[in-house]
Design a protein that fits this description.
This protein is about 50% helix and about 10% strand. By secondary structure, the chain is mostly helical. The protein has a domain at about 1-75 and about 115-150: 3-Layer(aba) Sandwich (Rossmann fold), CATH 3.40.50. α2 links the parallel β1 (about 25-30) and β2 (about 70-75). α1 (about 1-20) packs parallel to α2 and α3 (about 80-90) packs across α4 (about 95-105). The longest helix is centred in the middle third of the chain and has 21 residues, at about 45-65. The mean pLDDT is about 85.
Length: about 160
């Protein structure tokens, strides 16, 4: 909770100190689909990620009078080095490629696709640009439709 919520609140607070005098800015926070769909991970993690989206909405309302936009991006699990290592440890040092495949399979929903780090980066770039100047308080879900069906496909 301290990392996932307190860090978001403090990050928004310190960014706002710089942006308020300029009457402009865009703040992006990282949520997770686990804050939208239950039973994927432990309750405290899901709760902390749901709280991130709430903090974003409340901050967007507070900072809108200063021309500052605040948004959130919630994605499916990505095969980052940290997550690959965790999966390999859970399943007793399985091969790295198999861990990557498990992560991709567990969140694959849109046929013929998989979520890549670049997909989340593109969503963040869009929200930060002037093309999204009228979007604030939004939680952009980058999940290929995963949260619409909540089918967990993870298996060792």
């Amino acid at each position: 909770m301290a990392v996932n919520i307190r860090s978001v609140v403090l990050g928004i607070k310190h960014a706002a100190w710089v942006m308020v005098p300029r009457h402009a800015g865009s703040i992006l926070c990282t949520g997770s689909i686990t804050g939208l769909v239950g039973r994927l991970v432990p309750l405290t993690y899901s709760l902390s990620k749901a709280a991130v989206a709430a903090v974003v909405r409340l901050s967007a309302a507070k900072l809108s009078n200063h021309g500052i936009r605040v948004n959130c991006i919630s994605s499916v699990e990505l095969p980052t080095p940290f997550r690959i290592k965790a999966i390999r440890e859970i399943f007793l040092d399985m091969e790295e490629q198999r861990a990557v495949e498990m992560i991709e399979l567990s969140s694959a929903e849109l046929a013929g696709t998989k979520c890549e780090v670049e997909d989340v980066a593109k969503a963040a770039t869009f929200l930060a640009l002037d093309e999204a100047m009228y979007i604030s308080g939004h939680n952009l879900v980058v999940d290929g439709g995963f949260t619409t069906s909540k089918r967990l496909k993870l298996s060792p």
